[in-house]
Amino acid sequence: MTLGHPPVQQAHVPWAVRANQSSSFWRLVAVEARKLVGSRSDKIVMASAPLFLIGLMLLFTLPQSNLASAGKQLQPMLVVVQLGLLLVFATVIKLVAGEWQYKSVQPTLLVQPSRMRYLLAQAVVLAGVWVVCTLVTFILYPVLIKMAANGLNHDYLLGNRPGWVLGVAMLSTALVLLTALIVSLLIPNTGGSLTVFFIVVPLLALARMLLPDVFGLIYPLEPAWHLAGSGAGWPQTISSLVVWLTLLGISLLVLSRRDAG
């Protein structure tokens, strides 16, 4: 005969009840969002990102000497998006690749084993990053390029086509973010992913400037250049989309089979 209070059924203890319940999807999204600023270095990088972006915008807008056409006024934005948002995309790479390198993904997959839900939660966070980066670029860039055009006594032409400017900003930001995601999924090592993204991708951009007909076929931002009116052509645009969408499919397949242990 047991003395004292009868044993409490463990299944009805509050912590046990919560443990048996699956986490809501939006809770997973909140967890992934907090990982973007999970460490002190991440907070510093994200706080420095707007200053870095504004600095790059000033560097690539105010010194321009030929802004006589709408295309000339829009082209610097494509360079700004690729280079000015590097700090933001570096944090994204650390979020995606670092989890697999240091096995910090294990707690998330233990709470909810579905890798699809985990990936969708990260996708929502990345979509939020994309929206914020796009809006900041869309708001700040026209102001600076207008100042540069006025300084050259050129008419500011982008104000007549805000939808076009927004579309280019959205597409270019999405393509660079997609490139960072693909690299971090294929190379589950923070140092390796950052090396490829910071060295190989800019080198590819330089090669595209020198030989657009050749390297435009694999340049990730070629569709954005095409939309901006400075693309190498439809074959390069279509080829670029096929190449990077194929790489995205491969990276997702690799992720689904990757050992989290």
From TrEMBL:
Keyword line: Membrane, Transmembrane, Transmembrane helix
Q: Taxonomically, which superkingdom?
A: Bacteria
Q: Any signal peptide, and if so, which residues? A: none
List residues traversing the bilayer: 44-62, 74-97, 118-144, 164-187, 194-218, 238-255
Q: What is the name listed in the Swiss-Prot or TrEMBL entry for this protein? A: ABC-2 type transport system permease protein
